[in-house]
Structures are given as structure tokens and as C-alpha cells.
């Protein structure tokens, strides 16, 4: 084509753009909500009760207002890193390794015998055992947030990791070998693509939360929490740890600096084993009799199986419906799926502490949550 001939293809693209049919710099989407709705529409073992959701939304909103729930609530937890103390890069590195390993703390043992970490004079279990062990390692001069360390097969051995996550009971931290594999893989990817530092990964997302979730899922197998569901051609994306990593950055930095994301509201609830439990407790979701029985009997649900996928995806969709109900009643609220999720998680943990849990959480041993 000579210089003075018009580029018809480009003209067609520009015309589409001017007609609003084409946005040239497509904003990224994670596809999580779309997949969650698809699973919900095809679920027979998990259902959502709209009346309970409306009632729960009102009660949750009132309590979140009363507790002044905000991103700042995150830093108020005594074990979470304070970016003013360890610096912005240090906080990003801490959150990256924390959410790289943020999975599967539940135990079959009694409260007294379950895996627990002693730190700052307290006994920490569940998610908090992870955070406590990471803080303790840093206090002991173990560079647990440094990707060079994760790759060093002499220094970072399974025995060293066993020491980092040592328990004050006889039960070892679950999936220790899998956690080491996650560290090795993440160290390798950060070395190959992000000059060994997680801050470069965050900056590569150019301020997009969905973009950062997609980078994590694309570059790190151990963040690629997506699974087949029935006959659907493309896998259903849950991306729980990728999304909670973005949410923890946003909360820790209170929406600024490394926590500034223009599309943070695209992040959904994090499909773990705790929020489905509180949603079931509130009557927002309910199970088919066989699934209800399996959960009540604390039977293991197969990872990636239909029951587990329905549970995780319908919980995501249920929290989205709660969020829409709250936004409808209170336009302009700052409440998004992240703050709703944090509140729901903290609520079920308060119930656990008070011994008032009325239904068990489901049991799936998995590196995804
Ligand atoms: N959906 C959702 N899942 C969450 C969290 C958190 C902690 N987030 C902190 C940050 C802000 C909040 O205010 C929390 O203080 C951990 N988990 C997941 O739960 C499981 C651990 O359970 P348990 O063994 O009982 O501690 C495990 O899969 C873990 O990945 C959350 O917030 N949302």
C-alpha cells in the first residue's frame, strides 16, 4: 500500500472507537464473577436464599458501620505488618509471601492439639499462625520474605521451613512440602520476570487490581486457582489467593502507593473455607441434603470436585448479591466485596473464639485456600 493510500483497516478501527464499540486500551477483567454466576446458574447442591440475603445485608451493613470497617481495620490486627515500621517494599514483600502461603490451616485435631505457633506470648492458630510464624522468622533473622532465600536449596530446606513453621503442639503445619514448592516456584518467577522483587510485579500491573490478579494467574502456577466445572469449555477462575493478595495490599496501604488500584471494586470475595461457613450460618446459602450431611460429618470434599466448586463459586456470587443489596440501600457506600469479605471472615473467627459456631466449615485439603 503506498503512503498516500488510506489504511482502511485503521479507519475501520477508529470508526468503531468513535462509535464507542471499541475501547482501544481495554481495561483488564478477571472473569471471576462471570464464572461464579455460571456455576451458580448450574448448581443443584448449593442455593442462595434471597430473603436471608436481604436480612443479612441489612444486619451486616449496620455492624460494619458500627465497627467503622475500613481498609485501616487491616493494620489494626497486631500481627499484620505496619508499613511505616518495615517500609513500603518490606510490606509488599511480606504480603506477597504471606498470601503465597495463605492456605489450608484447618486441623482434624482438638483445639489443644492442633498446629499452633507461639509468638509474642500468645498461641496463634489458623491464618494467624502463618502470620505469626513469618513475623517470628524475621525476628530470628531468617529472610523468609526474600525471594533469593526461597531459591537457595542449601539455605531454604524443608527442615528450615519446618523450623520457621514449628508448632507448640505435636501437629506439623499442613502441606509443608507444598509450601516449599510454592516458595521455590515464586522465587524462580520473580527472578526471571520481576528482578527478584514483588514490588516490580505490583508496578507491572499499572494500578489495575484485575491486571495484577491476571499477572499472578498468568505467571505463577501456584496462584492459578482455576478449575474445570461440568461441561464448561474454559476453566472457572476462582483466584482466591491472587485476589486476597491484591486486597491485602489495598488494605495495608489504605488505597495509596502500592495499594492504589483504580478498579479495586473488581475484586470479589475470597473463596476460602470460612466465609462459606458464615454464609451458611446466616442462611444466605443452603446445601442439598447429601452435601449438608457430608459437611456436618466433616467429611473431606474432593478438591476441584463439583460440590467444592459449587460451594466456592456460589459463595462468591452470594457475597456479590449482598454487596449489590447494600449498595442499592446505601448508594455511595465505600463497602465493596473486599470489606464485606474481611468482615465476614472476622465475624466467623469471633464465633469460633466464642465457641458459638453452629455449622462446621467444609474440609478440602488444598493449596488454593
Ligand atoms: N475469605 C477470606 N479468607 C481469609 C481471610 C483471612 C484473613 N484475612 C485478614 C485480613 C483482613 C481480615 O480482616 C482478616 O483479618 C484468611 N483467610 C482464609 O481463611 C482460611 C483460614 O481460616 P482459619 O484457619 O480459620 O484462620 C484460609 O483459607 C485463609 O486463606 C479473609 O479475610 N477472607
UniProtKB/TrEMBL annotation:
Its EC number is 3.2.2.-. GO terms for molecular function: hydrolase activity. Belongs to the QNG1 protein family. This is Queuosine 5'-phosphate N-glycosylase/hydrolase. Pfam families: Q_salvage. Catalyzes the hydrolysis of queuosine 5'-phosphate, releasing the nucleobase queuine (q). Is required for salvage of queuine from exogenous queuosine (Q) that is imported and then converted to queuosine 5'-phosphate intracellularly. It catalyses: queuosine 5'-phosphate + H2O = queuine + D-ribose 5-phosphate. It is an enzyme of class 3 (hydrolase). One of its GO terms (biological process) is tRNA modification. InterPro entries: Q_salvage (IPR019438). The lineage of its organism: Eukaryota, Fungi, Dikarya, Ascomycota, Pezizomycotina. Keywords: Hydrolase.
Amino acid at each position: 500500500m503506498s503512503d498516500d493510500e488510506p489504511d482502511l483497516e485503521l479507519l475501520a478501527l477508529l470508526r468503531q472507537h468513535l462509535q464507542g464499540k471499541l475501547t482501544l486500551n481495554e481495561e483488564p477483567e478477571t472473569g471471576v464473577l462471570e464464572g461464579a454466576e455460571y456455576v451458580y446458574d448450574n448448581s443443584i447442591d448449593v442455593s442462595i436464599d434471597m430473603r436471608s440475603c436481604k436480612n443479612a445485608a441489612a444486619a451486616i451493613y449496620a455492624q460494619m458501620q458500627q465497627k467503622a470497617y475500613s481498609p485501616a481495620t487491616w493494620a489494626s490486627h497486631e500481627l499484620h505488618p505496619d508499613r511505616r515500621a518495615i517500609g513500603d517494599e518490606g510490606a509488599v514483600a511480606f504480603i506477597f509471601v504471606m498470601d503465597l502461603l495463605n492456605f489450608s490451616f484447618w486441623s482434624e485435631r482438638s483445639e489443644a492439639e492442633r498446629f499452633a505457633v507461639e509468638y509474642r506470648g500468645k498461641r496463634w492458630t489458623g491464618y494467624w499462625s502463618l502470620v505469626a510464624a513469618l513475623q517470628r522468622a524475621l525476628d530470628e533473622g531468617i529472610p523468609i520474605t526474600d525471594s533469593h532465600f526461597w531459591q537457595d536449596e542449601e539455605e531454604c530446606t524443608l527442615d528450615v521451613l519446618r523450623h520457621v513453621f514449628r508448632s507448640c503442639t505435636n501437629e506439623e503445619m499442613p502441606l509443608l512440602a507444598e509450601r516449599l514448592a510454592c516458595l521455590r516456584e515464586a522465587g524462580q518467577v520473580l527472578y526471571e520476570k520481576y528482578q527478584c522483587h514483588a514490588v516490580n510485579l505490583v508496578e507491572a500491573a499499572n494500578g489495575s487490581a484485575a491486571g495484577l490478579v491476571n499477572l499472578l494467574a498468568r505467571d505463577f502456577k501456584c496462584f492459578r486457582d482455576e478449575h474445570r466445572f461440568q461441561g464448561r469449555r474454559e476453566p472457572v477462575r476462582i483466584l482466591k489467593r491472587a485476589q486476597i493478595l491484591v486486597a491485602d495490599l489495598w488494605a495495608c496501604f489504605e488505597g495509596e502507593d502500592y495499594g492504589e488500584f483504580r478498579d479495586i471494586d473488581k475484586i470479589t470475595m475470597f473463596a476460602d473455607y470460612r466465609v462459606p461457613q458464615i454464609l451458611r450460618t446466616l442462611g444466605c446459602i443452603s446445601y442439598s441434603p447429601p452435601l449438608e450431611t457430608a459437611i456436618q460429618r466433616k467429611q473431606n470434599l474432593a478438591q476441584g470436585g463439583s460440590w467444592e466448586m459449587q460451594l466456592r463459586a456460589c459463595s462468591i456470587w452470594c457475597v456479590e448479591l449482598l454487596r449489590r443489596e447494600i449498595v442499592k440501600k446505601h448508594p455511595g457506600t465505600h463497602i465493596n466485596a473486599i470489606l464485606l469479605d474481611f468482615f465476614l471472615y472476622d465475624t466467623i473467627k469471633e464465633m469460633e473464639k466464642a465457641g458459638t459456631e453452629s455449622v462446621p466449615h467444609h474440609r478440602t485439603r488444598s493449596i488454593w485456600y
